[in-house]
Amino acid sequence: MRIVGQIEHPFIKITILQMNERFAIKLEDNLLEQTYKFNEDDKLRTFQHMEKMVDQTFLDECIKRFLEMNRSRGETYQRNIL
Length: 82
Description:
Layout: E1 2-7, E2 13-19, E3 22-29, E4 32-39, H1 47-53, H2 56-80
Antiparallel strand pairs: 1-2, 2-3, 3-4
């Protein structure tokens, strides 16, 4: 898998990767990570195409997921470790 590029964001690291006719959007926030994979086709072939996929609606949904993931991680730690 090779890094095609990164998209600037104030607190999420966003990396676009490509491998075997697929693209991936990888989002990282602290210790949490989300990855979304897409098959490459005629309309999805370049970094610029992938950059368009990362619109504000997509980012808002990912941020909500990060908050839910962080809550779940904290709750399981509290239940099982403390």
